[in-house]
Amino acid sequence: MKTTILFFALACALCVSCNAKKGKGKVIGGADGATSINVSDEEKRADHDTVTYELPECRLVSTDSLVSASDTAVAMETARKVYWENVRVVDLVVTNPTDVPLSFGRSWRLQVWDGEKWGYPELRVGGIVWEDDLFSVDKAPLRYCFRIAGGEYYLLPEGKYRLAKAFRLGERKMVLSADFEVKREVSR
Question: What whole-number distance in Å separates Cα of residue 140 and Cα of residue 144?
Fold first, then answer.
């Protein structure tokens, strides 16, 4: 009986001390006081991503309806042919003129041309792994705009690059690619 009372008293004391410690720290966005977040100059740069996504899991920014065309080729290109050094995000525009919706995942691949063959650029971060899953917007024909954060993961000095992304059109699997350049001096 004494052991039970002693155990109960220790448990109560532990709960009281834990509750007392809770009030000492502040939670970001909590109701316990004002929250201040400082934004560095690097984060204020023009190419910092502040976009609202239609499907954030795969960085799909938007979709636009298309008029069905006689062309049935699904195509992909970058929004710009030339970007500035160490650009953080590249917009991919995928056009599906067919009446079959496209399916896609999170994954993408970035390569750099070394003058003889395609290779991989130098990593900015330790290692990158994407789960590939399958998403779809049940509408076609459609134009998709993806915002690929290649510069968040890779160093992008001056050179020629290629972004590749896998898609499914019904049962047909395809990998689309789009080339772009990075130059030192480009007007944004």
Answer: 11
The reported pTM is 0.67
List phi, psi (to 5°) of 83.
-120, 170
Q: Where are the beta strands (DSSP E) in the chain?
A: 60-65, 75-78, 82-84, 90-96, 102-104, 109-113, 118-119, 135-136, 142-148, 159-169, 172-183
Q: Are 133 and 105 in contact (CB under 8 A)?
A: yes
Percent of the chain scoring above 70 in pLDDT? 67
pLDDT in tens, 27-84: 444 444 544 444 444 444 444 546 677 777 777 888 887 766 667 789 999 999 999 9
Tokens at 157, concatenated: 């000095």
φ, ψ at 71 (rounded to 5°): -75, 125
